[in-house]
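Can't paste images in this forum, so I'm doing it all in text. The chain is below; anyone willing to post the predicted structure tokens underneath?
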Amino acid sequence: MFSVFMIPRGRLAALTLLPALFLLADAACQRVPLLAPSGSVITLTSAATVLPFNGSAQISAQVIEAAGTPPHSGTHLTFTTTLGTIQPSDAETDSSGIAKVTFLAGAQSGTATITAISGGASVSATGAVKILVGAAAVGRVNVNANPATVPAIGGSTTISASVLDVNGNQLATVPVSFVTTAGTLSASQVITDSNGVAQTTLTTATTATVTASVGAQGSTTPPATGGGGTGGTTPTTPTSGQASGQVTVNISAAPGLVITPPTTPPNAGVPASFTFAVTVAGTNGSAIRDLSVDWGDMTTQDLGAVTGNAVVSHVYAVAGTYTVIATLQDAFGNTVTQRTAVTVIAATSPTIIITATSIPTTHSAAMPVTFQVQVTPPTGIGVQSVTMAFGDGQTSSLGGLTGTTTITHTYNDPMAAGPKVVTVSVLDTLGRTTQGQTTITLP
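Text version of the structure:
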């Protein structure tokens, strides 16, 4: 029969400590990571080569031993990046020798160079994954202005910069720097929206070239507020990537306007002719939209889209001096105003001449008398009617006589001897009645 009390005390102590030593050795083995053997190759791939601020991409690392087979499952890899972060920074391979981590871009522009290492294996210099972040990913900037031309007196236009990455996709949340050779901009630094577009407003009265830049002249960190406004951070030089685009905003040329008044003072109540000569500018001109005239006598007239020469008549009811103001507008919003003065005189009356060309020399019961009547109205005034009274109670209508006519009237009253007053009354187109008279004496 064997008893524990029969084992020497020193051997008993050794037997007691042996299990504890095995446990310590096993724990130590578990703390030592499994690394790729020398001669292994690590190949990195990324789900994306371009990322916006705070974007992310999965990074895959595959380890292949010199024999061409994957290492033992659980081989440990350590990842590093020059920009942003790797989550997690350490990972283990699966049975295919592949380990996967996530790259987080952060809020700084630049090129992230990602590598991995495990024991004697590492990624070659040419095998590192490079990811362009934020402004570093810019490929080109397209700039346009709407409208592309502003009025000669000055105006505003919206400048839009469309930012595309190296793959031709819209690049959102990157700062765009705007500068102009003339005029003022509502914002000099704007963040692109979800469509990759940044906008600012240019106000100018002279031709201006606006340049939109991403990268070297832009901020590498987006403002905390985001959106389109002036920047919220201090611009710094980006680590890589820059592009710019330009657009020229032209100034429209104003149209020409000349007013030619009547060569002689017009009569009150008579149409006066004015010539309005409208010319469209040959360079940067636009279509005429409207020509309006203030005649200076409390009346206005809209002549519409006049081009070339337009002859327009206006009647001034009262004599006096008037200022004619013409206002011309084109499609670009240019406004041209011209003035001219016109003096209107009172209209003269028609001239009436009555001549008795044949008068009897002896008294008789019937005495024919021949008259020549001449009516000459002033220029621009017409004759409505002419009536001739022979002085014996008889009258005759001469219609709307203008010029000279001959008429014979027979005096039949035996008592007709003696003087007779012959009257010609002219009603003109101004509504005035003018009379001319002559006296004949019958035998």
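Helices lie at 9-31. Residues 1-8, 10-15, 20-25, 216-240 have pLDDT under 50 and may be disordered.
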